[in-house]
Design a protein that fits this description.
single chain; alpha+beta; about 240 residues; 4 strands; globular
Length: about 240
């Protein structure tokens, strides 16, 4: 596994560097939706990078690696020891990140104390698979759950937001649901667990999440008048 990750470091670093350096220019030219969609090219590019070459190249590389171990046995032995040490460290941190994320997710969901909303929200069309709930433990609407997602709103949602603000905010969350953003977030987090030692991965993750929110905002406000955009910005 460590050898596999080491092979990915070079292409991943190049891809993330290009993505981060060109981000502002892409955001201006393509908008939030286009920039957000481009993040999908990174796992696709890595997938293409890992397509195996022909057997001849693979055999030659294995022979050269074998000859290296024959000629320099002491250096090879040291490399194996360092690899094992880093492998144990990598596995330990990755496991801690996964366990912490799972426990935080379970604890958060158990503390929501959800109440199903039967009446819905005026002039907001909900997908059939998305059910609206209310909770006193959240301060803004959000999607929760993986296999069965729920849209949770605060108890005083109707009091703190106007009707138009309610509609725009919920349309934002529905946009996340329609695009399956929660699963894209899971894929992005998997990069964190695999490459937790890489600073560009963390920076790209936060930039990705920001683009995700901007993309939903752009989708919701695409056909809205200026007054609606001002109302939505005040709600945020």
């Amino acid at each position: 596994m460590i050898d596999f990750l080491a092979v990915q470091l070079y292409p991943l670093t190049v891809l993330l560097t290009v993505a981060l350096l060109t981000h502002n220019q892409l955001l201006k030219k393509l908008g939030a939706n286009g920039t957000y969609a481009l993040w999908a090219t990174i796992p696709l590019a890595l997938l293409l990078f890992n397509i195996p070459f022909d057997n001849f190249i693979r055999v030659n590389s294995e022979q050269s690696l074998y000859s290296q171990y024959i000629i320099l046995p002491k250096v090879a032995l040291q490399q194996i020891n360092y690899t094992d040490l880093f492998g144990a460290l990598w596995l330990g941190v990755s496991a801690c990140l996964i366990v912490f994320a799972c426990l935080s997710h379970i604890k958060f969901n158990n503390n929501l104390f959800l109440t199903k909303v039967s009446g819905g929200i005026e002039n907001v069309c909900f997908p059939k698979r998305l059910i609206l709930y209310r909770s006193s433990h959240v301060y803004s609407p959000m999607l929760v759950g993986l296999l069965k997602q729920k849209l949770v709103i605060p108890e005083d949602f109707e009091e703190i937001y106007s009707i138009e603000q309610q509609q725009l905010i919920l349309q934002h969350e529905i946009c996340h649901f329609d695009r399956n953003d929660i699963y894209w977030n899971l894929l992005a987090f998997s990069f964190i667990t695999l490459f937790w030692f890489h600073p560009l991965v963390w920076l790209s993750y936060f930039r990705f999440r920001r683009d995700q929110e901007l993309s939903c905002d752009q989708t919701v406000l695409a056909r809205k008048q200026t007054e609606s955009r001002i109302t939505y910005s005040k709600a945020l």
